[in-house]
Amino acid sequence: MAPVDGGVVGGCLTLAGFDVALIGRPGHMNAIRQNGLRLLMPTGTKTVHMPTYTRPDEVEFGKDDVVFLSVKGQGTETAMVDLKKLTEDMPIFCFQNGISNEETVSRYFKRVYG
């Protein structure tokens, strides 16, 4: 089973020493929580452990946090509605395929990066 794209980014950031929390579908998050996230890298295989959640309201966001959004395009609107309930202003980096995700996100947040 391949991890979600956001998992790869999150795993690499964790390996680099950043505090990372993943939010995703229950099946993926439970597997990562139980077994860690296995990254196959040119330097070898690494297993990374990090906090995982299935809903944004389970995460305590801080003032210096950012979101790397990697949901499928059809989930962008719902993700932003849920996130907007928790914070007024947060930088959102879109790691998604498609051409309208940044436009959708910018209806909810000012600092949007593609």
User: What strand line-up does the widest sheet have?
Assistant: 5-6-7
Mean pLDDT: 92
Question: What is the string of helix and strand elements?
Answer: HEHEEEEHEHE
**Structural class category:** alpha/beta
* Total E-strand runs: 7
Number of folding domains?
Answer: 2
N- and C-termini, Cα separation: 27 Å
Shape: globular
β content, as a range? 15-25%
Radius of gyration: 14 Å
- Which segments are poorly predicted (pLDDT under 50) over 5 or more consecutive residues? none
Provide a count of the helices: 4
Instruction: Please outline the major beta sheet.
Output: 3 strands, parallel
Helix content: 25-40%
Furnish the topology, listing elements before pairings.
Layout: H1 5-15, E1 22-23, H2 26-35, E2 37-41, E3 44-48, E4 52-53, E5 67-69, H3 76-84, E6 92-94, H4 101-106, E7 112-113
Question: How would you describe this structure to a colleague?
Answer:
The chain is built from 4 helices and 7 strands. About 30% of the residues lie in helices and about 20% in strands. The protein has 2 domains: about 1-55, no CATH class; about 55-114, no CATH class. The longest helix is centred in the first third of the chain and has 11 residues, at about 5-15.
